[in-house]
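User: Hi! I'm working on a homework problem where we have to compare a predicted structure to a textbook description. Could you give me the structure for the chain below?
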Amino acid sequence: MLALAWLLLSAVLVLIELQTGTFYCLLLAAASILSMITALAGLPILVQCFTFVVAIALMYIFLLPLLRKVIPSTSKTAILQNSEYLVGQEAFVIQAISPDEAGLVKLHGELWSAVATERIEEGTKVTVTEVRVSKLFVTKE
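Assistant: Happy to help. Predicted structure tokens:
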């Protein structure tokens, strides 16, 4: 009966992992499988719980950092790489930019909201100095 509970816990944790993609729940599911094996061996519930806790601790200490190196997260690196790519690029002002009001620039065929510390007229070539979220900070060339 306890083996079935560990298996059910493992299945729920795998379903949660499929939604999050963080490896935390996957490691918990693996620990519950190990505890299920101890339940199938007929060991007492305290041994099963001890196996679960020790397995989690060892996996978080040793396995999680290894998984993080092998499979890097893309959620932050994609934005950072895009920002680094845009800095230094040349764009053309489509709508005039003033210090107190954003304008529009065209960069690689896309329209971006842009701000500057000085007034920049339409048709002027500018250089991207910084990217914050979806706004470009530009200067005249």
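For your comparison, note the following. DSSP finds four helices and five strands in the chain. The longest strand covers residues 125-132. Good luck with the assignment!
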